[in-house]
Amino acid sequence: MVQPSPTHNLFLSLLHGSRPLLADGAMGTMLHACGIGFDACFDEVDLSDPACVGSIHRDYIQAGAQVIKTNTFGANRFKLARHGMADRVAEINRAGVELARRVVMASFKQVAIAGDVGPLGVRLAPFGRVQPEEAREVFAEQIAALAEAGVDLLLIETMSDVFEVREAILAARQVAPSLPVVASMTFTRDDRTLLGDDPAKVAHGLAEAGADVIGANCSGGPAQLLRILKQMRQAEPNGLFSVMPNAGWPEQVGGRIMYPATPEYFGDYALAFWQAGAQLIGGCCGTTPQHTEVMRKAIDTAQPEAWVNGLSLSINEREEASAPAEAPTQFAEKLASGRFIIAAEMDPPRGLSTHKIVAGASLLAEAGVDVIDVSDSPMARMRMSPWAVCSLIQREVHLDTVLHFPTRGRNLLRVQGDLLAAHALGVRNVFVVMGDPTSIGDYPSAMDNYDLVPSGLIKLIKQNFNVGVDHAGATIGQPTSFIVGCALNLLPPDPAKEIKTLAKKLSAGADFILTQPIFDSRPAMAFLQRISDELGPLKIPVLVGILPLVNPRHAAFLAHEVPGITIPNDILQRMAESGEDSSKTGINIAIELVEQIRPQINGIYLMPAFSRYDASAEVVEAVRAGH
């Protein structure tokens, strides 16, 4: 690692002070607040609206920043070419530096200017067409302009590829060997880069490439980057470190991108970063001069002896408690909270169109459903892959999903590949079932074999994949973070066998239970009590199946032709006598069932018949109204 003498560089002299050096926060967030659209070229604003950029620099300096970043994050040839400005690299980078210098001079403060260098916006070989030598040349073009304009350091930030950041550092050493380099990577929710590298590997890579300061920025927020900082520092104990987190994970609210972390929250974490060994602390997306001001006050007023107690310690206790690789899903958090959960099942479409399923999911979400269950080839009928539907609902409706994952028809290779695919798509909740036999569906001659029964698949997920290895014990790179549900029949033909099978699923690590639909609460609740008597009180949530009947024919079909479903004669009679109001009667029966069993269960699992999501929405609204 190159270590220029601190006596010859403003940044390094400030960096070696007794307290951490404070950098500014987001530039893009503040430019957008000035009215610059996200489709505009932010870097060109140095030329077209220097007053806007200058005011942002000024506000950060007044808030206490000792390092300000030039507005040149995307001022490289590849990114500027998208706006027809590929030939203006030097002009825009020089303008960004000169603008920052004028503001610093007017402040009469010691403030270092960081030449901001972001990713090229292209993929390097072997994952893209750009060769490393070409990437280095493009980085060198931008860095040379920044160096010639007089920056105090280079900040190579928000990188996701260690090979790309290496080329940037090499370019810096070629064209500006005297400038210190801060090289900073961004991480996904699982504490890895987009290409799968962990913090320790990143720290080693940056140090070997010649970075003066090893950094992490952007990512999820302060809690995540505190976790990552500790791992990086453990890997490179003699290094210097920088941390510049986002103000939490961005959320879309009313068409606007919002960041949840408050300035006060950042003030607390500034001290935790200091304690964990960061020499340079700042902010990234969503942070403002208000965040900088609070961090400045926290750093200036903290006493070293305060590390043994108080807020810093409580932050680290919270961070250690949240050290798992990935935050729990919304569904997992709701299950853990003890609230009454409402899940609703949806069948994937038969063809290519997804408009109806998105509309149905939106209706259920508005009614108050907590999670959408997506079935896999129900009744062995050909339908779209449920992984795609789960991913679509989570992206478009912003509601958690549960992926139904049958073992039937999958050998051991396909099971594991499908699990990896689901996790890569952001699907973390799975419901393990045997699945319907192909003999009853569209392709009765289709292969119906399987290598794992449901309890075996639950064990594979919880005891192999979730610890980072496959069925053979080979690493899969990082642990998955699935939570797993299992099925239960509350009116089984062989109660002793059903209890024995459930015991295996619980032992394997099941996290929740979904039951088949019931139409008589008394025997169902009696069987749950028997399970409790024989296995001990269930320690995982039980969501009881509720299926709103549509008409008398529907009720008769379920009662006489669907295995595992029993409908009492009085309900069949009630449906038969309901006439034109049969659908409403079915909804009322469902609501009454929920009222009867609610005190003894953790939630319900709604199964809309014939895609009647409106009927399910009525049940949901009635249940929510009854609290």
What do these coordinates show?
The chain folds into two domains: 8-321, Homocysteine-binding-like domain (TIM Barrel, Alpha-Beta Barrel); 330-625, TIM Barrel (Alpha-Beta Barrel), CATH 3.20.20. The protein is elongated. It is built from 24 helices and 18 strands. It starts with 9 loop residues before the first helix and ends with a helix. α8 links the parallel β4 (153-159) and β5 (181-185). By secondary structure, it is α/β, with parallel strands linked by helices. 48% of the residues are buried. α6 (89-107) runs parallel beside α7 (132-149) and α11 (263-275) packs across α13. Mean pLDDT is 88; it is low at 1-7 and 305-325. The strands form three sheets. The chain has an eight-stranded parallel β-sheet with strand order 1-10-7-6-5-4-3-2.
Secondary structure topology:
Blueprint: H1 10-15, E1 21-22, H2 28-33, H3 45-48, H4 50-63, E2 67-69, H5 77-81, H6 89-107, E3 112-117, H7 132-149, E4 153-159, H8 162-175, E5 181-185, H9 199-209, E6 213-218, H10 222-235, E7 241-245, E8 251-253, E9 256-258, H11 263-275, E10 280-281, H12 289-301, H13 311-321, H14 330-337, E11 341-346, H15 355-367, E12 371-374, H16 386-396, E13 401-406, H17 412-424, E14 429-433, H18 454-463, E15 483-488, H19 495-508, E16 512-517, H20 521-535, E17 542-546, H21 552-561, H22 569-576, H23 582-597, E18 603-606, H24 613-625
Helix pairs in contact: 4-6, 4-12, 6-7, 7-8, 8-9, 9-10, 10-11, 11-12, 11-13, 15-24, 18-19, 22-23, 23-24
